[in-house]
Amino acid sequence: MDYKKFIEEQITHIKQTVGKAKAINALSGGVDSSLVTMLGHRALGDRLRTVFVDSALMREGEPQRVAEIFADLGITVELIDAREEFLSALAGLTDPEEKRQAVTDTFYSKLFSRLVKQSGATFLLHGTILTDIEETVAGIKRQHNILAQLGIDTEAAYGYSVIEPLKTLRKDDVRKVAKLLELPPEISQRIPFPGPALATRIVGEVTPERLETVRTATTIVEEELADSGAFQYLAVLLNDRATGIRDNKRQFGQIIVLRCIESIDARTATVTQLPWEKLNRICQRIIQIEGVNRCLYDLTPKPPATIEYI
Ligand code: XMP
Asked: In whole angstroms, what is the distance from residue 191 CA to residue 226 CA?
């Protein structure tokens, strides 16, 4: 694939489609939305408004760090505090698809419709990639960023048209193009992180307390496995509890699952053979988190498992 030609074609396409109108895009800091941000700003400059939605579901310090990285690239990212909105939409939900749906609805129908109206934008630039489309169309999973492919008319439903410059690329291509556009390795090599964010790593209800637990576990896992070379690594909070002993007292504690996988494009995955010392060290750190008394390593490949837990 000719990546330089791809970049030129997409910039031209965005310019022609948007014309003199305004566009908006949501940046999460993942490689897909970051690449769209770069292409969009090359094409439209200030006519593209880039927002980072703080959904309360992001990793530790992520909103500020992402804004900082893009400020260094000369791109202004607006932080939108939508924590309360997402938490109340997710409150009481335990079904995986209902949780995903709640994130999608809050993001697109509520928040984005509002932002788009406020800013007068008529186009939304979107980081959908080929794998997202394939898995959604195949009915494997409703990726939260798939709309048109499911027959949703975004113009009628939400009041804006969607442009998806990356819809012919897989993840490995996205990384190569991102590197070509001089996005720093922190972005171009960033491990995948799902759109519904930490909500995909909490089995059962998403609450501020449970988010805090999985967020702390995520920080530990990402620190410990940063040099592992693995495709993706994550922490999951289960809905079950298990008996344990803490300070000579019986404790019915939380269970964290560690997942670390090898993959090319996330369609299939195998489990990384992490050294025993590493696993032990991670376990020792995870069980220091308040209320957590077990840490498990998930040995299941994809398929039959998926990478995330919802
Ligand atoms: P699964 O769990 O389906 O994940 O094996 C495959 C890859 O996709 C990521 N993922 C998502 N990415 N929106 C995204 O942008 C989503 O809704 C979503 N769900 C999963 C996941 O992290 C893995 O890399």
From this structure: 9
Lowest-confidence range among 83-87, 100-104, 139-143, 269-273?
Answer: 139-143
Task: Give the closest residue to 48 by CA, choosing from 59, 38, 35.
Answer: 38
CA 282, distance to chain mean position in Å, is 23
Residue whose CB lies within 8 A of the most ligand 1 atoms, among 34, 105, 191, 200, for a mutation test: 200
Longest Cα–Cα distance of the chain, Å, equals 69
Q: For strand 161-163 and strand 123-125, is the pairing parallel, antiparallel, or unpaired?
A: parallel
With a Cβ cut-off of 6 Å, ligand 1 is lined by 141, 143-145, 192, 194-196, 200, 232, 266, 302, 306-308
Distance 48 CA to ligand 1 centre (A): 26
pTM: 0.88
Residue 54 and residue 19: Cα distance in Å, rounded? Answer: 30
Could you tell me which residues are beta bridge partners of residue 153? none
Report CA(193)–ligand 1 centroid distance (Å): 7
Q: How far is the CA of 265 from the centre of ligand 1 (A)?
A: 11
- The per-residue pLDDT for range 78-102, each reduced to its tens digit, is 999 999 999 999 999 999 999 999 9
Which two structure tokens, joined as six digits, stand for 286? Answer: 């995870």
Task: Pick the atom of ligand 1 nearest to 234's CA.
Answer: 22
How does pLDDT run across 57-86, given as a tens digit for each residue? 999 999 999 999 999 999 999 999 999 999
